[in-house]
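Example record

Each entry pairs one chain with its bound ligand, D-xylitol-5-phosphate.
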Amino acid sequence: MATLPTRPIRIAPSLLSADFANLGGAIREAEAAGVQGFHLDVMDGHFVPNISFGPALVAAVRRRTRLPLDIHLMVERPERFLEPFRRAGGTRFTFHVEATSEPVELARSIRALGGEAGAALRPETPIARVGPWIREVDALLVMTVNPGFSGQKFLPEGLAKIREARAVSDRAGGRVDIGVDGGITPETGRDAARAGGTFFVCGNAAFEGGEIAANLARLRQAIRQGVEERHALP
Ligand code: DX5
Ligand code: ZN
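Structure tokens for the complex follow.
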């Protein structure tokens, strides 16, 4: 018989895919549908070929919700932005390991500000990069698309990386969240959960067609199924 999952399933919609002219409504609807937080994609036009938003928007979101806000810093020199985003109400600060030569120092300054530290990896960056200092962070974010845009297709080679990230985290005591970001649908979300993901970012799949509650219910059910399948593995 399948053991019940020991960790709660956590889903965080990426507001990049929401209607920016009606963010308050999108937040309210997602929150009513039972999400565990929001994911905010910050892009600087250098680290990724797109520009999104800064601390002012995060502060506006913070005024509408008390849920954790995961700030995904797709920017060069992320250390410049920690304080402004912390002041704006960010909870977790997920920097890219490719954007810094001092990941440990960065993670420690995030924690010193009272935030949770996350380390994101582009699809081509191996998990081995974070192995030596995994205990310095609260979360890994495995990117399953090339960062920069929502609405892309899930890269299936990401599944092996999720499995590896989960194994590394489990060996380090299992307290590190394994986030998955990019191309999550009910199908890929289920696969990612079976591979060991614990935190699921979803953009288009949450907001498409404006059917936020129905979309999130489908995603949650599929992800829960993946978690159960993982627990049933021999
Ligand atoms: C991509 C972003 C993702 C993206 C997710 O650069 O980091 O968070 O917005 O959107 P979907 O789920 O549509 O791929
Ligand atoms: Zn993201």
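Confidence is low (pLDDT under 50) at residues 1-5.
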